[in-house]
Amino acid sequence: MTKEADVSREIKYQPEKYWDRLWAPGGHVAIVTSVDKEGRVNAASYATAVRIVHNPVQIAFTTSLKGHTRANILETNEFVVNLPSFERKILEAVRVVGLPFDKGVNELEKAGLTELPSQSVKPPRIEECSRHFECEVVWTKEWLGRMMVVGNVLAASVWADCINEKGYLLWDKIKPVAFAGAPYFDTFVAAYETMRAGMPYEGPEVEMGAASNRSYFEDI
Ligand SMILES: Cc1cc2nc3c(=O)[nH]c(=O)nc-3n(C[C@H](O)[C@H](O)[C@H](O)COP(=O)(O)O)c2cc1C
After folding, report:
1. Ligand 1 atom at shortest distance from the alpha carbon of 146
2. Alpha helix (H) ranges present in the chain?
3. Domain-wise residue ranges, the chain
4. Pocket flag, ligand 1, residue 212 (CB < 6 Å)
């Protein structure tokens, strides 16, 4: 039987520039840590890290072709995906880590985050993130000016009070966070909440990041 249309509900087509926002949550917000050949630590924020294979657990994200994360991953074949919670302090740190710092700058220091050594790879974990996935690269592919990275998880750790005895997440404690959609700026979602996170870092990179977003999005 055909259901009668709900005439009280308006359905709107959205302009292309808002399609990304419409898809939220697309995956988990992440800070990806990597190291270069000299072992210098790099960190960058990513809007959409996705678990794409369950067994073995494999994770994917896409990165710009210009960034240090891409260069490091191609050089050393390793990275760690660190997942923040829906808490203001760590989401503000996500914004700092996402600023365009020079090569060789350790973004974790800029954001006041704490490095924890990893068990299986050289890049560190981040203590202030609730979950950490140590990965080796399975494959990368470049297209549309981006590079997709798929990593195989070699070790994974979590704040111990955020899981039950079977390893299931305690959702109210872990507070997963998704990105609300383009631009890469300040808006995150969890369940039905949205939060605009402040920018606790002061430096020329703040305006550089905002200016590149403003060139396309006037409403950030
Ligand atoms: C919330 C947020 C989400 C972001 N998501 C992505 C993303 O999915 N892909 C990407 O290439 N850059 C993303 N960025 C921008 C990078 O973090 C930024 O370009 C960073 O400077 C790259 O660092 P790197 O050069 O050390 O790799 C995001 C930034 C923020 C603040």
Report:
1. 11
2. 19-22, 68-76, 88-97, 107-110, 171-174, 204-214
3. 16-214
4. no
